[in-house]
Amino acid sequence: MSLLLPALPEEVTMRRLIAAVVLSVLALGTTASCGGDDGGVVTDPKSTSKSADSKGGSKSKKPDADDGKAELGDTLSLKGLNSGTRLDATMEKFVASAESSNDFLKPAAGKKWVAARLKLVNKGGKTYQDAPSNGAQVTDKKGQGFHATVVEVTAGPSMSASLKLPPGDTARGWLVFEIPKSSVVVNVQWTPDSGFAPDTGQWKVS
């Protein structure tokens, strides 16, 4: 007797497929990746000269800004899943109310879109491949976390869904999140290798 399983949304199916691929890489690279450092949330900026505001402009940091807490415009150095993978990640801008670039595609009822622009520079010795939106998340004041969704917004081009970044090259694009209208985002997080890397970068938004 055959069982009929319900069809999965295309986005869920794609995420599961990407996760399966990444897990295969993890299995192959376990020996190279294990070095006694389990990684963690990285908030200590590599550079702290300027910070971007939620409207996309730049501003000097306040003298009383918390030391070691990355803000918009700060660069974090993050380890990837495989040995030798290193990325400079900068959360450049944040939009608290993002608008769709498609007249027929809108947030669900009671929801809104927010967007963050991520810049990546490959500091490793090999081409870095990823679907960066899989490793992105925002957290609101209630501590609720929300993962990225795949939509286009008027703020600018989305981050590539199939990134192949040679050593020394730069990639830049927007990550979009659907959250309740009442939510206020306080942090944006990004983890390399679709969320499987040991390091997670975190930037304060508000």
Automatic annotation (TrEMBL):
Residues 46-57 have a biased composition (Low complexity). It comes from Streptomyces kanamyceticus. This is DUF4352 domain-containing protein. It comes from the Bacteria. Residues 88-185 form the DUF4352 domain. Residues 61-72 have a biased composition (Basic and acidic residues). Coiled coil: none annotated. The keyword Signal applies. Keywords: Signal. InterPro entries: DUF4352 (IPR029051), Immunoprotect_excell_Ig-like (IPR029050). The keyword Lipid metabolism does not apply. The lineage of its organism: Bacteria, Bacillati, Actinomycetota, Actinomycetes, Kitasatosporales. Residues 37-75 are annotated as: Disordered.
